[in-house]
Amino acid sequence: MLTDINNVPIQEALKRDGYVIVDGLIDPELMIRLKEACDRVVAKARAGDWKYRRLVGTQFPPWTEGTDVWGVQHLIHPELNEPVFLEWYGSTKLLQSVCELLGAKKEDLQLELFNLLINPQDSDFDLTWHRDAVPAETSAEEEIEKLKVPHYGTQWNTALYEDACLYVVPNSHRRVRTPEERDITINDPKSHNMPGQLQVRLLPGQTVFYDNNILHRAAYIAANKRATLHASMGTIEGGHHRASTIFQHGLDWMNQPSFQQSLPASLEKPYANVKAMAAKTGLGKMETKPIH
Ligand SMILES: O=C(O)CCC(=O)C(=O)O
Ligand SMILES: [Fe+2]
To answer: What residue range is the signal peptide (predicted)?
Structure first.
């Protein structure tokens, strides 16, 4: 059983707190190659040579306006030609962690998103307090219902450099917002005074897995180098809720034969599983409309 940085079993910590910090999911040798690959893709995204990127001024997809980049999308896209990202995404200890967190068997895992969060160059940028799958204006009644929907997946940030950009409200992932939290998310969403907020401080190589419905925000600081791998995996039980969260990022490029050919053996079944999810939810293309 894998444990977190406080020696708590990771599944228990994630369930209880809505987030869990884990060490050692990247071998030192791989760390060097991941950093080099990140430098290359960041340069391409900033130069406009890679069009799948998150742009300052916009929080959720689609990212169509702006020039300063805060994230690079689709690191495992075959046209980026950086196999080291797939090598890590399919690595044994990472897959083992995901299996433990989801209580899933390896053959039931589903390949999903793999992006990169970086420091902008021109100006600092704050993301608002949010839950990924529940818009701020959602009524309390609807929020209760949405929070009951199981995720059948997990997402994580893995820091290649020190990273203290993410803030969370521990244990907020399964309950309706308090009146004060609701007011902040709607009327003062960049507040630095959310009750109970905690700054997540990651050392290089550390990973935070978090429930995507935990109340969270992030502060992007132009002066501090950030290259944090931001990825997710699910299980075959996901269904249409998971499909809408994942495919809103536009994954139709995964249908290219060159993508399938680039996969390490450990990701062949997770790839077959994500294709099956798209087919089962009746999507011709692996693309859906934005949630927010
Ligand atoms: O920058 C981060 O660490 C969090 C990003 C985030 O919340 C999101 O992309 O929805
Ligand atoms: Fe988020």
So the answer is: none
Helix (H) and strand (E) counts for the chain?
9, 11
Is residue 289 in a domain?
Answer: no
257 CA distance to ligand 1 middle (Å) = 30
Q: Where are the beta strands (DSSP E) in the chain?
A: 19-22, 53-55, 69-72, 109-118, 125-126, 153-159, 163-168, 198-202, 207-210, 216-220, 227-235
**Atom 8 in ligand 1: residue holding the nearest Cα:** 132
- Let me know if residue 162 belongs to a domain: yes
CA of 211 to the centre of ligand 1 (A): 12
Nearest Cα to Cα of residue 188 among 118, 128, 117 = 128
Residue to mutate (ligand 1; options 63, 70, 115, 117; most atoms within 8 A of CB): 117
Mutate to test the pocket of ligand 1, among 19, 63, 74, 166 (most ligand atoms within 8 A of CB): 166
Ligand number nearest CA of 219 is 1
> Is the confidence at residue 10, as pLDDT, over 90?
yes
pLDDT (tens digit, 9 = 90+) per residue, 44-74?
A: 999 999 999 999 999 988 998 899 999 999 9
Asked, for residue 246, whether it belongs to a domain, the answer is yes
- CATH number, domain of 53, equals 2.60.120.620
Per the structure block, which two tokens stand in for 284? 């011709």
Report d(CA 102, CA 188) in Å as an integer: 34
By 3-state DSSP, what share of the chain in percent is helix, strand and coil, each rounded to 5?
A: 35, 20, 45
